[in-house]
Amino acid sequence: MSDHELRVSKIRNGTVIDHIRAGQALNVLAILGIDGSDGEEVSVGMNVPSDRMGRKDIVKVEGKELSQNEVDVLSLIAPDASINIIREYEVAEKHRLERPEYVVGILSCPNSNCISTEDEPVDSKFEVLSDGVRCEYCETIIRDDLAAHISVK
Amino acid sequence: MRHDHLIDTKQLSRQDIEDVLDRAAEIDADPAAFGDRHAGKLLGLLFYEPSTRTKMSFETSIKRLGGDIVDMGSVESSSVKKGESLADTTRVIEGYADALVLRHPSQGAAKMVSEFVDVPLLNAGDGAGHHPTQTLLDLYTIRENAGLDDLTIGIMGDLKYGRTVHSLAHALTNFDTRQHFISPGSLKLPRSVRYDLHEAGANVREHTDIEDVLPNLDVLYVTRIQRERFPDENEYRAVAGDYRIDLETLEGARDDLTIMHPLPRVDEIAPEVDETDHAKYFEQAHNGIPVRMALLDSMLEDQ
Ligand SMILES: [Zn+2]
């Protein structure tokens, strides 16, 4: 472990999201719905030097393992990130992100006239395109700043 | 056609379209032969926004096939006002009917409902999204007047919010067509429609001036530019005037140009044009009956 990574404390059980593009750490937390209000222990490193990326962000969350849905959306805003699931201080699983075909229930549609924004029993659903995402219901395409469309529960 | 639901025209192949149009032509030739094909069948009408003509057109079509309607009635007087979700309402009403027709102001409404119901669902317009049955009657009219291959078509007006435009543009990619889109800059085709047309490899050009393309057109499809799309009255007037067809505009057109309009029009086509051989919009509206009969006939066949 390098000196830089030591700046962020070790966790016992939880998730380490590494190699996040510099500046995206807070958006990653937003995706995970983490704002500290539930008392979770969160460490964030921003603009940490990285051999591979120059600068990177890193997020460590105690007591939380990411769901597939969360990993999927993460892949859209932090495509280079790696995810380590930690159990008893050891890396139990390592994941590289893969772009999913769809992301469900995480992004909200910016089209206020879209049925998915109304009080109906459906989750939002976006098809992942090569350069953006597209609402499965109203077909609106979002290309820029996906993080702004993340609906935090 | 082998689809349970008709949500948009992207799901239709050339063969699907031709099957419906051929059946519509058969019905047109001998309506009486279809008079009791679906005796006892019920079509559920769910109109969440008023559309007298589209609704009457479906009503007429099912009755001409021997069937009848169950009608949710106006939204104001139904449980919808009490906050019941669209998903719940349609799940209840599907138990009363053999097929459903949905008109709804929200984009994607029909797509969502199709995830909840088992009876065939017809999208009769969802916000600025799609209007596939309109497109089938448009195509029927185009085929009768100009043919569907080696066709140069201009589509003019509100291309951004015009759902009939979106459905038609998708459907035309199945045929050998050149599509010219003519609109003010603020009402150009939405990104999502352009994306699909590009994916389909469509031959598409965009213009702001009708004069640039009019002489080449076999068909000119005109849609209404709505006042409420503009922040102020003056801006609307300035734009609307540039997208109006009258006898003077038509001096540059071919003699066999077919002019269409999904109706209702306001003043984008001058009444004097009605008297010319170009005007096919009333014929187009009448074609709604055989085309919707054909569609219902094929959807109810296996029910
Ligand atoms: Zn949407």
Automatic annotation (TrEMBL), chain A:
Binding site for Zn(2+): 109, 114, 135, 138
Transmembrane segments: none
A single GO BP: pyrimidine nucleotide biosynthetic process
Cofactor comment: Binds 1 zinc ion per subunit.
Location of the Aspartate carbamoyltransferase regulatory subunit C-terminal domain: 103-144
Cofactor(s) recorded in Swiss-Prot or TrEMBL: Zn(2+)
GO cellular component, one term: aspartate carbamoyltransferase complex
Gene Ontology molecular function, alphabetical: metal ion binding; transferase activity
Keyword line: Metal-binding, Pyrimidine biosynthesis, Transferase, Zinc
Pfam families named in the record: PyrI, PyrI_C
Annotated Aspartate carbamoyltransferase regulatory subunit N-terminal domain residues: 6-97
Subunit structure: Contains catalytic and regulatory chains.
Known function: Involved in allosteric regulation of aspartate carbamoyltransferase.
UniProt similarity note: Belongs to the PyrI family.
HAMAP family assigned to the protein according to its UniProt record, in alphabetical order: Asp_carb_tr_reg
Name of protein: Aspartate carbamoyltransferase regulatory chain
TrEMBL record, chain B:
Keyword Transferase: yes
Positions with a binding annotation for carbamoyl phosphate: 53-54, 103, 131, 134, 263-264
Enzymatic reactions: carbamoyl phosphate + L-aspartate = N-carbamoyl-L-aspartate + phosphate + H(+)
UniProt keyword list: Pyrimidine biosynthesis, Transferase
SUPFAM superfamilies linked: Aspartate/ornithine carbamoyltransferase (SSF53671)
Domain Aspartate/ornithine carbamoyltransferase Asp/Orn-binding: 150-298
EC numbers for this chain: 2.1.3.2
One example GO MF annotation: aspartate carbamoyltransferase activity
UniProt function note: Catalyzes the condensation of carbamoyl phosphate and aspartate to form carbamoyl aspartate and inorganic phosphate, the committed step in the de novo pyrimidine nucleotide biosynthesis pathway.
Family assignment from sequence similarity: Belongs to the aspartate/ornithine carbamoyltransferase superfamily. ATCase family.
Protein's UniProt name: Aspartate carbamoyltransferase
